[in-house]
Amino acid sequence: MTMQRTPLLLHRLLDRGARIAPLEEVVTQTPEGPHRQTLAQTRARACQLAHALRAAGVQPGDRVASFAWNGHHHLEMYQAVPCMGAVLHTLNIRLSTGELEYIANHAGDKIIIADQDLLPALEPLAGKLPTLERVIVCAEPGAGPWQTSLPNAVDYDEWIAGHPADYEWPELDENAPMGLCYTSGTTGNPKGVLYTHRSTYLHTMAQCMTDVFELSAVDIVQEIVPMFHAMSWGIPFSALTLGAKQVLPHRFMQPEALLDLMAQEQVNFSAGVPTIWQGVRAAIEQNPGRWDLAKLDRITCGGSAPPLELIRWFWDELGVEVIQGWGMTETNPLATYARRIAKRSQLSTPAEEHVANQGKAGMLIPGLELQVVDENWKPLPHDGKSVGEVLIRGPWICSEYYNDPQPDKFHGDWLVTGDVGVIDSEEYLVLTDRSKDLIKSGGEWISSIDLENHICALPGVAQAAVVAAPHPKWDERPIAIVVRAPGAGIGEQEIQQHCLARFAKWQAPDEVLFRDEIPLTSTGKIDKKTIRAALQSEGYTLPDLR
Q1: Catalytic residue (choose from 343, 440, 473, 505)
Q2: Is 191 a catalytic residue?
Q3: What is the per-residue DSSP string for 365-412?
Q4: What percent of the chain has pLDDT over 70?
């Protein structure tokens, strides 16, 4: 018997939700309150968008860029652009003008679809993007008419109006490109990662597995992680496939606004970076009893490791499980997940071990392979002690960068992640740091992540970053940058004593610097490159204290 070889194309997944749950809602926050449309309407509008793009000359493989918040317009792009055979390039709205110019030109974007309030960030690029033919503007309710200096700008809703509400999606090669995301460019220019229909199809199927995020059609999903950040971790594709209700905050990203929407729509699953959840916690603590979050039962946290104390707080105070996910733009993006209880054998283990499980990067999603290797590429034992470079491979893992060879980023068919960690006897990946963020002091390695998480567990600390500072004797020593919680008077001595309760003296920060804020990257991670540059510009060098 020969099995059918049906190409793994996204339209076979993304049309499903509208078929099985046509009346389920997509809710987008606006200045005038929630905008609501059904999954059936979302698909119909996506088909109209596809027809409009085709009429404008967009062909399979052409790059159509989005420059938008999480909203129904962006979700329509997620469905229309890949399914018609074009490539959705999600431009990061938090990048500088220079970075946007480089990325849009490197991608060769033909059309940009942008939210009205974001036009000022794009307008400095007028005349600097030779491949750009048209800009489509998503108007904001109540914002009034818009004007722009960008070329051939038209209103999104007017532009798609009148086009058919159905589209015969083409049969493509499953290895055809469907999405383009650029890394945050922590070293050198940002690098493009081209997702294919096959890779995203398989990633979506894996993400829908019960043991990963436990997503289902009965969920109400609030996607806080930006749709311009590694395709919102793939969650919009999974939600469309399953037919789940989606709740999109648009530009209303303040903790109070997110909580208002969460309570109003009875969200039970949400996804965001640690800084989001730290802000949500602070808002709840400052306004106890304001929000009814009885339906909320799990949140996903990624981008960087959440402090164990934050994980514990959500469970103890709200009964909400924090599912930590690890991945990269290059892993399409989810690779591992960490849950309170991930195996039957853990049902009888103490609660504190459940929290410890959540603090790890997690176990592999089925279908992927993971190794930790030494400097000679020799695999290290899974003993929880042998620290090495993390390598990963699998059917949705990047094998090259878009028009930018980077041979040092790959070892055979393995992706060299740039993360350093161990694999323990339970097959959990535990990250100790990014290779470039490890601190080498007197020939010994110090993990900045471990120090940051420990400091963040101290009451009175809102955020913490640990970076290396030059030292005349030890080459590098750790220093901590700390943001106090509102009203807290915590001082350096308390933080130092807290660190010495767990770390040896040589591992603890030599100095604690208090700041009003810690710079973040465009994807919400602590921007250690900027911190180090700021310290260097100040001429900061640690004295020889030892």
Answers
A1: 440
A2: no
A3: PTT-EEEEE-TT-PBPPSSS---EEEEEE-TTS--S-TT---GGGEET
A4: 95
